[in-house]
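From the pipeline queue, job 12 of 40. The input is one protein chain; the requested action is below.

Action: predict structure.
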Amino acid sequence: MRPTIHEQLSGVDRLLDLADESHSLPAETSELLSNARRLIKRVATSWDTALPFLLDDNARLTELLTGTEAREPVPTDITAVAARNEELRGSLAQLISTIPRDPEFRPRRAEIGQYLQWRVATDPA
C-alpha cells in the first residue's frame, strides 16, 4: 500500500525538523526551512480540496464516456482518484481525436456527447 499524500508530506516535515535540530544553520537556511514548511501546508490544503473536484470530474467523464451514471465506490486515496482521472481524460482525448475535422461541421456539446457515446458503444475493443 502506498503512503497517502498527507503521510508523505508529514514525512518531509519530520525530515525538515531533523535537519533544523541536528545542525546549527545560518539564518538564510533556517528561513528556507520555514518557507518549505509553509509550502508543505499549502500543498496539503490544496490536496484536500482536490479530492471532491476529482471525484465529481471522474463521475462526469464516466457518464460522458459510457452514457451511464457513475456508480463507483467513493475512494479515499486521492492518488488513486487522480490516476483514474488521468485515465478517463486520456480516453476522452482519444475519442475526441476521432471527431471528423470538417471546417463546416460545428457540433453542439450535446451532439459531441452523443457521438462519443456512440463511439464507445460501437468500439470493438
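Job complete. The CA atoms of residues 91 and 97 lie 10 Å apart.
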